[in-house]
Amino acid sequence: MANNSNKKLVPEAMDALDKFKYEVASEVGVTLKDGYNGDISAKDAGKIGGQMVKKMIEQAERNMK
Predict the structure, then answer these.
(1) Is the distance from CB of 32 to CB of 40 less than 8 angstroms?
(2) Are 48 and 25 in contact (CB under 8 A)?
(3) CA dihedral in degrees (17, 19, 24, 30; nearest 10)?
(4) Is the Cα dihedral 3, 51, 18, 40 positive or negative?
(5) DSSP structural state of residue 44
(6) Cα angle vertex 45, ends 55, 18, to 5°?
(7) CB 25 within 8 A of CB 32
(8) DSSP state of 11
(9) Going residue by residue through the chain (65 aa), what tens digit of pLDDT does each one get?
(10) Per-domain residue ranges for the chain?
(11) Residue from 10, 11, 50, 61 nearest 28 by CA
């Protein structure tokens, strides 16, 4: 049985994370559509995910000050 490591720790944050994902995708020039986006390239998905992580780390660092 596979272990799903993508489980959200705070399920209530899902809407905010989706909105954040679309904002970041727009910033990096990747067009996402509502629903399934499994047809985008791994390179584009990586751009989105990498930029999301970068922004979340920057926010956490600002909150530590």
Answers:
(1) yes
(2) yes
(3) 120
(4) negative
(5) H
(6) 60
(7) yes
(8) G
(9) 556 677 778 888 888 999 999 999 999 999 999 889 999 999 999 999 999 999 999 999 999 98
(10) 11-29+41-64
(11) 50
